[in-house]
Specification:
Layout: E1 12-15, H1 19-28, E2 31-33, E3 55-58, H2 70-91, E4 94-100, H3 123-138, E5 143-147, E6 149-150, E7 158-160, E8 163-164, E9 167-168, H4 169-181, E10 186-189, E11 195-196, E12 205-207, H5 222-228
Parallel strand pairs: 1-2, 1-3, 3-4, 4-5, 5-10, 6-9, 7-12
Antiparallel strand pairs: 8-11
């Protein structure tokens, strides 16, 4: 078991330089491995990692949510995470895997971690869910964070009329860090409370989402609150 008294004595590597990866790096001092800027390749990820890595945060995902490219989704959102999970278990590193609240798109409101997720009909949600199951079963010390994060400040003048437990990245990232410090493991719903997505975009025009977009991905946050109290 890794004791995370402080990030000062812990080697943290963050995979992915998107807005969440960048925010987590600011909060933890962890180094970022970037596919775009650093030529990080998921097919040979092992050669980019250090033997001294104690915490590996996987923010890499194919987020082209409604893409019909099944192979690309499978490679990035399933095959890579499970290979990374096996690597972390073998090396004794703590894996933090970033999942999505979209795995609950077919559930009733306020889905719990113990509910059977019913993702909407997309390769994105299906392969994210498969990765969650695989990691939780075969690497029980891993932490899987189901969440939704948006840029801060919100850069668009329109926002979908949907219900979410997500928030802007500056509010979501500190919760992930707090869970790491608490040595949380298993699947945890991460959010700041349910509401319309417009809560993160004051002044933006509220518009109807496409028909295939999930309208309610709210999550029960009881487990999260119990861990952090």
């Amino acid at each position: 078991m890794i004791k995370l008294k402080s990030f000062l004595d812990t080697n943290i590597t963050i995979l992915g330089d998107g807005i969440l990866g960048q925010e987590l790096s600011k909060l933890t001092g962890g180094r970022i491995l970037s596919r775009k800027k650093g030529n990080f390749q998921i097919q040979s990820f092992q050669k980019y990692l250090y033997p001294s890595d104690k915490v590996i945060i996987n923010c890499i995902a194919n987020t082209d949510t409604y893409s019909d490219n099944e192979l690309a989704m499978k490679q990035t959102n399933f095959l890579f995470p499970i290979a990374l999970s096996e690597y972390c278990k073998y090396k004794g590193a703590k894996l933090i895997h970033i999942s999505t609240e979209y795995v609950y798109a077919g559930n009733n409101s306020f889905a719990k971690e113990t509910d059977l997720p019913v993702p909407h009909d997309s390769y994105y949600a299906k392969y994210k869910l498969l990765a969650d199951h695989y990691i939780s079963l075969l690497n029980p010390d891993a932490l899987i964070c189901r969440l939704l994060h948006k840029p801060y400040p919100f850069p668009y003048d329109k926002v979908w009329d949907v219900l979410t437990s997500g928030d802007t990245v500056n509010n979501i990232a500190p919760i992930v860090v707090a869970l790491i410090k608490k040595e949380a493991k298993g699947i945890v719903n991460v959010g700041t409370g349910a509401g319309n997505l417009s809560k993160i975009a004051p002044g933006a025009a509220i518009v109807q989402p496409p028909d295939n977009a999930p309208k309610d991905t709210t999550m029960d946050l009881t487990k999260l609150l119990n861990i952090l109290k």
